[in-house]
Design a protein that fits this description.
single chain; mainly beta; Immunoglobulin-like; six-stranded mixed sheet; five-stranded antiparallel sheet; 1 helix; 44% strand; globular; WxLIP_PGBD; Cell surface protein
């Protein structure tokens, strides 16, 4: 099972910046990578933990969600859609393996770190291939307001 991407610092306005990092478990295939690349055995539960750190100068709320990978219109792999339709729906997807909530929201004070945890159970039988997905994080930043315009800004 491969879950991408991690070890990312997100820069918005100086008051609304945060960093994320995967906490890699013992069954990580390549310990030199910053994302989850796990060798799993059938029917086993696994915790995927992600550290979120508020590096800005004001409190921030960050939402983390587990999503399936998809091919974007530009041909790159995307991880940011909550309800992605899979090409071969009969194969296991990362989101179908999540036990519990796929989306969690954390409030972080200035300089505070919190770990979010997602429980994932591997497919019940041997599976040859890669189950590709990711944990996407989103933080709301200061909204833009004008006479006729109201824009809600987000950082991913």
């Amino acid at each position: 099972m491969t879950v991408l991407p991690f070890a990312t610092t997100v820069k918005a306005a100086p008051d609304k910046s945060y960093a994320i990092q995967a906490i890699l478990p013992d069954n990580q295939v390549n310990k030199g990578e910053s994302y989850f690349d796990l060798k799993v055995t059938p029917n086993k539960e696994q915790s995927l933990k992600v550290l979120i750190a508020n590096t800005g100068s004001k409190p921030i709320t960050v939402t983390a969600e587990v999503n399936n990978a998809y091919t974007a219109d530009s041909g790159v792999i995307g991880y940011d859609k909550y309800n992605t339709k899979l090409y071969k729906a009969k194969l296991p997807s990362l989101t179908s393996l999540v036990d519990g909530k796929r989306k969690q929201t954390v409030k972080l004070a200035t300089g505070q770190n919190k770990t979010v945890e997602f429980k994932v159970k591997s497919p019940s039988s041997e599976y040859s291939g890669i189950i590709l997905g990711g944990v996407t994080t989103t933080a709301s930043v200061s909204p833009t307001k004008s006479k006729n315009i109201n824009i809600k800004n987000q950082v991913r």
